[in-house]
Amino acid sequence: MAEHRLITIPISHFCEKARWALERAGVPYVEEPHLQGVHVAHALRRGRSRTVPVLLTADGDVVPESSAIMRWADGQLADPERRLYPVGVAGAEAARLEAWLDGDFGADGRLWMYHETLPAVQTLEASVVHGIPAWERHLFRRGRTPLNAFVCRYLGVNAETAAAALARVDDVFATIGDRLQDGRPYLCGDRLTAADITFAALSAPVICPEQYGSPLPSLDAMPTAYAREVRRLRETPAGRFALALFARERRLVAS
Ligand SMILES: N[C@@H](CCC(=O)N[C@@H](CS)C(=O)NCC(=O)O)C(=O)O
C-alpha cells in the first residue's frame, strides 16, 4: 500500500517541525532519515529541493519545505478549529511569525550548535546516525573529519559567525519573551498555531528538549560551554515557553 514518506536528516530541527505537524494531524508516515550531505542526493532527485524535509505523499505529490508540509498536514484536519493556521488575523499573524522564524533564527541556532559540537562530533554520533542506512553510518564513521570540514564550509561555521548567531538567537528569545509578557498562553493568543510549533521546533538546537522526535544526546554528555548556554536559554521566558510546548503538545494528536 502506498504510504506518505518524509525524507529527513534525523537531527534537523526543520525536519522536527514537519514531524510535529504530521503527527499532530494524525497523518501516518514513514520517516526516511539520511546523513548530512547524502540527503542532498535524495532531496534533489525525489523532491526537486536541496533541503530536507521533503514529504512524498501517498498520492505522488512532492511537498518540499517545512512550512508547506505544515500547511499540507493542517489541510488533513477536518475541524477548522484545530488547525494551526486559523482563518483571519491570527492565521495571518501565525504565518508572518513562522516566515520570520524560518529565516535567520532557524539557521542561527543550527550554526551555533554545530560550532559548539563539531569538534566533539562523537558526542552527536547517536543522534546523527539514528535510523540512517548502514552504508551512510559507515560513511559517517570513516569520514568524520571531511564531514566536519564540509559542514563548517557549507554553513559558514567559525568562532565569529557562531558568536554572532548566538547573539541573534538571544534577540529572538527576547522578542518572544516580550510577546508573552501579557500572559497569553500562545504566541498568537489563546490557541496553538504554526508560529508556536515553529518557534519550539527551531529552538531545539539551543534548548535540547526531552520530547524531540529523534534522539538528542543528554546535556550532561555535551561540551561544557554548549551545555552552559543551553541551560541559560532554557531559563529565559522564551526558553521555558518552548520547553513547555514540547512537554505539553509534542505528543498530542489534534484530530
Ligand atoms: N526553508 C527550509 C529550510 C530547511 C533546511 O535548512 N534544512 C536543512 C537541514 S536542517 C538542510 O537540508 N540543509 C541542507 C542544505 O541547505 O543544502 C525548510 O523550511 O524546510
TrEMBL record:
Domain GST N-terminal span(s) in chain numbering: 2-81
Superkingdom, taxonomy of origin: Bacteria
Gene3D superfamilies assigned to the protein according to its UniProt record, in alphabetical order: 1.20.1050.10, Glutaredoxin (3.40.30.10)
Pfam family, any one: GST_N_3
Transmembrane segments: none
Designated name of the protein: Glutathione S-transferase
Organism in which the protein naturally occurs: Paraconexibacter antarcticus
